[in-house]
Each structure stands twice: as structure tokens, then as C-alpha cells.
Specification:
By secondary structure, this protein is of the alpha/beta class. The chain is built from 21 helices and 29 strands. A hairpin with a 6-residue loop joins strand 1 and strand 2. The chain binds adenosine-5'-diphosphate and zinc ion.
Length: 725
């Protein structure tokens, strides 16, 4: 190649053409450094006909500076990047960025320097050094990461290096990961499991020529052993020397997965998520692109990495909404995983006990092959589900647990079994007000109440992170000791449990308490060993865990999720309660679930109580069909925001005023978004409901691209939105 076109990572720059110096070996997909004025930019060599740009005459081309020592991004990945940018109306460069590692990783492997405590204990210490000494016990990371961990400046830590309190350690970034062994500990599969596993294994084999796209929906009840089934397919890929990507919805679940993986394959998998240390990230990225990483387990960001030799993709808990990214590139990792498998000619397994309606529909239509595991493994039965009508079985004043739930918890405690209480609300109380004047604590940056957190003694906004200490007096009327907590959060339920069952050992499981891997590992170990009697948690405890002694699940407020009234409210409620119910009775002892509700007649609650999943899916499918909602029709959202309310409204009106008038597309709004103020930005929203026949993305681009807005206005397009706030 003599001349190349680059995709660069600054959308304002667009696309740039360069000359290739004589000795430089360049292919499509090569990652290069190019000059731009006095600066240097990173770019990917792209097929010129796929990136429109102004032709630059030969004589004006500047030469590339350097080709980075990494394999070129494969053509199939480049096509996936283009598809994603096109489908989600996102800049190509933002999508491509997700495939690349850090600059350091692109520059090559080699070594990195990290620091750790030397163990020296000086006689006198500044308070900052003392704090750092305390916080950094057992840690090893870069100075920047340690500074963040310890909450001190990098300067303080550099001083400590000088004083001999911290020492440098050289980390080899190219040291290989230990090899996973497909036959390390092979379980005896049940008949159903074996049948499923055999199908997956043959699909992995059949894809070895890169032409084996095979999407599966592994639809197995909670506790059916879905993991063991797809582990067989992982083992086959390992035998064939191919890489596997397992996507999990949350980092919190990886801890559990890691241990199971290690148990089965003898070594842990390679991790990829946003809280890896920079050296771990570099090491993982390089081993992924060079083909040395065998099995990568990650959050959705692992999806776009340039695997050298991918052979299988698994999306576990595939129904989870957290696969949808709601900032930056607004993509759904579950859906893009299937597209990647299609481009690469691979099998992809979507595993869930409560598949998304969209996935069910694709299975019905014969596009996904559905593999069912209708029974729990080892003869365990699904739990019995009972409804507690809160209008008739009223909790005591100021309490939230109905007498029947309390009785059942007492019985479990006496028998040495575990209970789990589920309420999807962090903190102590969702609303705090003044008893005297009615003042309500509200976030100054968001349309949201501040949530009281008793442990940290603060009022916090769950949207922007704004926090204030709980004041002694009302800020409005000045009355002292007048604040009342309204409604329950998990902390308040934990208080109630402590009052009712003072001898019970409890664990509170929320993102506030389980904010690092060690905390999660410790919780899981304690719960498994029976050192916890009552677990109280948010959605974090609803999935993945397997505690054999857990025989009672109490859902504190089944109506909570239905109140928001968004498109998927019923489905989400069904999934959440079915998943948390699925934690009960997974061992030898039968499980029981009590669902507290004020609407026992609601279709979702009735379906849960009767264990009639089909009835729920059928009813929900019809409702969606009538509403032209996904998967029968499509939605898109346009969110217009600015710090200036007038400016945001004017921009939203300008968009609304130029809306195309098409028979297969309905434009609603603009209207203030339910969260009309978020992180200090005023938000307006337009919703588009389109028939499947509509050319949604094309129409959106033709509509929005010509419009110009003031600098402070942001216009975000959300295709197939999950969040309607
Ligand atoms: P699911 O993900 O379908 O809810 P899991 O894969 O977590 O189910 O399996 C539930 C439990 O049963 C796990 O502890 C798992 O190790 C165990 N299990 C499943 N299948 C087998 C098997 N064939 N042999 C031994 N243990 C199994
Ligand atoms: Zn806020």
C-alpha cells in the first residue's frame, strides 16, 4: 500500500489520508501513528471506499510515522464496528475505540513498574503518609492507582518512595497465563444436560472453518446447571485451541464465576472489566490479541476486543438489562454478541432462566435454536411460591415484614436454614422529609429525592453521586430533630430484622457494601459455610448464587418495579422475582418464596404465584404486539440536553418541528424527560415508534444530521432504548 485512509479517534478530525513510507508494512486494520500538524494521532488503516472523505492530492500527503507492533484488526471485526456504528447511530471512531487497548498496550508488552509497601515502620509520620500506609496494606499497583486507593496525592506517594516506605516492583506483562485444562474436573451430566452439551459441542466443532454461525437460546430453569452445559462447549473450544468469550452482566458476578471455572478447568479465566489495574489490562489485552488468552470473562466492554482466534461466545444471564450501555455508544451487548458471532461464523449461547421477550420471539421464529432444561439438577425442586396480600396481612406499624414472613423466618432460623429478603432499594429510606414543615430533601442536580444512608450518615443522590451529611435540623424551618424517613430501603429492612431476630447473623448485600471483589468473595464464602442466617439485598443477590441452605425468599415489595410504568416494567418484575425466587431450595431441602404485594391480581404476580411462565410470556407478547412495541415494532429515543433549560427546549422543539411525516413512524414529543434534570443538565425527550419495515436509522440520520445546535446542547440517539427516564 502506498497511500492509506485512517480512522482516527477524534470525531472532529474526521478521516485523514496519509502516505506509507517505503519500508513500512501496512495492511487494512493496522494500528498506526500519524502526524497531524505539530501533534501525533493514533489511527486504524481502513478501507478507503468505506470512509467517505475529501480526496487529498498525492503531493499533499504526509508520511505515517510508525506502525504499532500489534496484529491488524481483522476484517470481520472492522465490519462489526461498522455495523454497530451504523445500527446505533454512533460515531465509527467511538465504536472502534472499544476494540483497542491503552496506548501502552499498543506499544508492546515488556514490563511495567508497580509499587508496594516495604514493611518499614518509621517512628514519625505525617497524617497523610500514615493514612497511605494504612490503606495500601497488601496492595501493588501504579503510583496513580495507589494514590486513588489511598486518597492521597501522587506527590505524597513519591515522597514515600524516596523515604523507603514504598518500593518499585517490575511486572512482566508478557508472562503467560497458566493453561486451562479441558479435562480437569469433568462433571457427570444429567441426561438433559448431556443432550444440550452435545449440541453445543458439535456447533463449536462445526465452526472451525469460520462458517458456523449458530445462535442458541439456553432456556433452563434456575438451578438446572446451565453453566455446566456450556462449560462442555468451552472445553471443546479449548481442545481445538480456540478462544472463548463469556459475557456476564455485572462485575459482582465474576467472583462466583471465577471459582466455578477454576474448579472445572484448574485455573482462573482471564478477566476483562473496567476496574482492572492498568498492568492487568495491558497484560490481558495483549494476550487476547495474540491468541494466548484462552477464556476471557468480562463485562460488555470485552465484546469488541480483537480476539485472535475466537471460537465461541456465551452471554450468561442474557436477559439482564445491564448489557445495555446507556452512555457513550448506546449499544446492547447481548444483541451485538449475536451479530459478532454472525460476522465471525461462530456459535453463540444466550443463557437465561427468564429470557428476554425479544429472545423468546427469535427462538419462536426459528432464528435462535432453543435448548430447554426444564428441571433442576440433582432432583432439587423449584420452590413453592405464595403471595402475601399486604392489604390483608398488614405488617406492624412502622414495619415492612408481614407477620407470615416473620414466622417463616423464625422457623428457618430455628432449623439452621437461611432466608433471603429482597428489596431493590439501596440505603435506609428513599425519601426524607421534615415533620414540621414538610420540606423534602432533593438533589440540586437531578430530579430526584436524596436517599438516606444510615451507615455513612449521609443523604445521597443515586443518579449523580451528590452527597450531604444528614443535618441535625431542617434546613428550611430550622426545627431540630424533626426529620422523618419515609419508606424502606434495604438498610431499614436490616434494622427491622435485627429487632425481630436479634440472634440472627445478617448480611447486607448492595453495591454500597459489595464494592470490591474481596467483599463479595467473603460474603459468598460466609453464606456457603452457613455463617449467615439472613441475607438482605438489592438486585445484586437475585442472580447466579447457589447457597444450598437457603430455603426461604421474601420479596418485600413486588409492586416497586411496576410503578415506573416503562415498556418493560412487567417483564423486568417477572424476571427479577423469578430470579430471586430461584435462589431458594437449590440444595436437598425444598424452598419457599413469599411475595409481598398490594396487587395480587396483577398478571405478573399471578403468573409467578402459579408458576405459569408461559401464561406470562403469552400475555406480555400480545400486549407488546398491540402496542407495536419490541419485538414487533421498534422504539428509538432522542434525548436533548443542556445546562440551559431554554436552550435545551429550543433545540428539542427544532427537532420536533422538522420531524419527518412517514406512515410507518410515529414521533412523540418533545416532552420533558421523567428525569428532567440530570447531573445539572435539563433534558427533553422525543420518542419514535416505528414499524419493523421502517428505515429507522437512515431516517434519523437524514432528519438530524442537517440540524445545527448551540455548543452547549447535546443530542443523543438511543436505538432500542431500555431506560425511559
Ligand atoms: P443455573 O445457572 O442453571 O441456575 P448452575 O449452573 O448454577 O445452574 O447449577 C446449579 C448447581 O448445580 C451448581 O452448584 C452446579 O455446580 C450444580 N450442578 C449442575 N449440574 C451439575 C452436574 N452435572 N454435576 C454436578 N453438579 C452440577
Ligand atoms: Zn443528583
Amino acid at each position: 500500500m502506498k497511500r492509506v485512509r485512517l480512522l482516527v479517534f477524534n470525531t472532529a478530525l474526521g478521516v485523514l489520508d496519509y502516505r506509507v513510507p517505503e519500508a513500512m508494512a501496512i495492511e487494512f486494520g493496522s494500528v498506526v501513528i500519524a502526524p497531524l500538524g505539530p501533534r501525533q494521532v493514533l489511527g486504524i488503516v481502513w478501507e478507503p471506499e468505506r470512509l467517505s472523505a475529501q480526496e487529498v492530492p498525492e503531493s499533499k500527503l504526509r508520511p505515517l510515522l510508525e506502525a504499532l507492533p500489534v496484529p491488524p484488526l481483522p476484517a470481520r471485526l472492522r465490519r462489526l464496528i461498522e455495523w454497530t456504528a451504523d445500527y446505533y447511530c454512533a460515531p465509527l471512531s467511538s465504536v472502534a475505540r472499544m476494540a483497542l487497548g491503552s496506548m501502552a498496550a499498543l506499544r508492546g508488552g515488556g514490563t511495567a513498574t508497580e509499587y508496594r509497601l516495604t514493611g518499614q515502620e518509621p517512628a514519625r509520620l505525617t497524617p497523610q503518609r500514615a493514612a497511605a500506609l494504612d490503606a495500601l496494606q497488601g496492595e501493588q499497583a501504579s503510583i496513580r492507582e495507589l494514590a486513588e486507593l489511598a486518597g492521597v496525592s501522587e506527590g505524597v506517594l513519591r515522597g514515600m518512595v524516596g523515604a523507603g516506605l514504598l518500593e518499585p516492583v517490575t511486572v512482566d506483562l508478557d508472562r503467560p497465563y497458566p493453561a486451562a485444562r479441558p479435562g480437569f474436573a469433568v462433571p457427570q451430566l444429567s441426561e438433559d444436560q448431556r443432550a444440550a452439551a452435545e449440541i453445543f459441542v458439535s456447533a463449536v466443532r462445526a465452526s472451525s472453518d469460520g462458517d458456523g454461525f449458530a445462535p442458541f437460546l439456553l432456556d433452563g430453569v434456575t438451578g438446572s446447571g446451565k453453566t455446566e452445559c456450556y462449560f462442555d462447549a468451552v472445553a471443546e473450544a479449548l481442545r481445538l485451541g480456540r478462544q472463548v468469550l463469556v459475557l456476564l452482566p455485572e462485575i459482582a458476578l465474576t467472583e462466583n464465576f471465577l471459582r466455578r471455572f477454576e474448579h472445572r478447568f484448574g485455573v482462573p479465566p482471564v478477566l476483562w472489566h473496567s476496574s482492572l489495574k492498568s498492568s492487568e489490562r495491558r497484560r490481558a489485552w495483549r494476550s487476547i490479541v495474540l491468541g494466548a488468552a484462552q477464556v476471557v470473562v468480562g463485562a460488555r466492554s470485552a465484546l469488541f476486543l480483537p480476539y485472535a482466534n475466537l471460537g465461541l461466545i456465551v452471554v450468561d444471564e442474557a436477559h439482564e438489562v445491564s448489557f445495555k450501555q446507556d452512555d457513550g455508544v448506546r449499544y446492547n451487548a447481548r444483541d451485538v454478541a449475536v451479530i459478532r458471532a454472525k460476522f465471525e461464523g461462530l456459535p453463540v449461547i444466550l443463557a437465561s432462566a427468564t429470557p428476554a421477550l425479544e429472545s423468546m420471539q427469535l427462538a419462536e421464529a426459528g432464528i435462535y435454536r432453543k435448548i430447554a432444561l426444564p428441571d433442576r439438577f440433582g432432583g432439587a425442586r423449584l420452590p413453592e411460591i405464595h403471595v402475601v396480600d399486604l392489604r390483608k396481612e398488614v405488617p406492624e406499624r412502622g414495619r415492612w415484614l408481614a407477620p407470615r414472613l416473620v414466622e417463616e423466618m423464625k422457623a428457618r432460623l430455628e432449623r439452621g436454614e437461611q432466608s433471603l429478603l429482597f428489596l431493590n432499594r439501596r440505603g435506609y429510606a428513599p425519601l426524607t422529609l421534615c415533620r414540621n414543615c414538610g420540606y423534602r430533601f432533593q438533589c440540586p442536580n437531578c430530579t430526584a429525592w436524596l436517599v438516606e444512608h444510615r451507615f455513612s450518615r449521609r443523604l445521597a443522590c443515586h443518579h449523580c453521586g451528590h452527597e450531604v451529611p444528614v443535618p441535625d435540623a431542617c434546613p428550611d424551618c430550622g426545627t431540630a430533630d424533626c426529620l422523618v424517613a419515609c419508606g424502606p430501603g434495604v438498610e431499614r429492612i436490616a434494622d427491622e430484622v435485627a429487632e425481630i431476630l436479634p440472634e440472627a447473623r445478617t448480611a447486607l448485600v448492595t453495591s454500597d457494601t459489595m464494592n470490591h471483589p474481596e467483599a463479595i468473595a467473603e460474603f459468598v464464602a460466609m453464606a456457603e459455610s452457613g455463617a449467615i442466617d439472613v441475607i438482605i439485598g438489592t438486585q445484586l443477590v437475585t442472580k447466579g448464587y447457589h447457597f444450598p441452605e437457603l430455603t426461604l425468599v421474601g420479596v418485600i415489595d413486588a409492586d416497586l418495579g411496576l410503578e415506573g410504568g416503562d415498556l418493560r416494567a412487567a417483564e423486568r418484575t417477572y424476571q427479577q422475582i423469578a430470579q430471586v425466587a430461584g435462589r431458594a431450595g437449590r440444595g436437598a431441602k425444598p424452598g419457599e418464596v413469599l411475595i409481598q404485594t398490594r396487587h395480587p391480581e396483577a398478571a405478573v404476580i399471578a403468573a409467578l404465584a402459579n408458576g405459569d411462565r408461559d401464561a406470562f410470556y403469552t400475555a406480555e407478547t400480545e400486549a407488546r404486539r398491540d402496542a407495536g412495541a419490541p419485538p414487533f415494532g421498534r422504539w428509538a429515543a432522542i434525548i436533548v440536553s443542556s445546562e440551559d433549560q431554554t436552550e435545551a427546549l429550543a433545540a428539542a422543539r427544532a427537532i420536533g418541528g422538522t420531524a419527518p411525516n412517514l406512515p410507518d413512524m410515529l414521533v412523540l414529543g418533545p416532552a420533558p424527560a421523567p428525569l428532567s434534570l440530570l447531573r445539572g443538565r435539563h433534558r427533553f425527550r422525543l420518542l419514535i415508534n416505528a414499524r419493523r419495515s421502517a428505515e429507522l436509522q437512515k431516517t434519523l440520520r437524514a432528519w438530524l444530521d442537517p440540524l445545527q445546535f448551540p455548543r452547549g446542547v447535546r443530542v443523543n440517539i438511543d436505538i432500542d432504548p431500555y431506560s425511559f427516564v
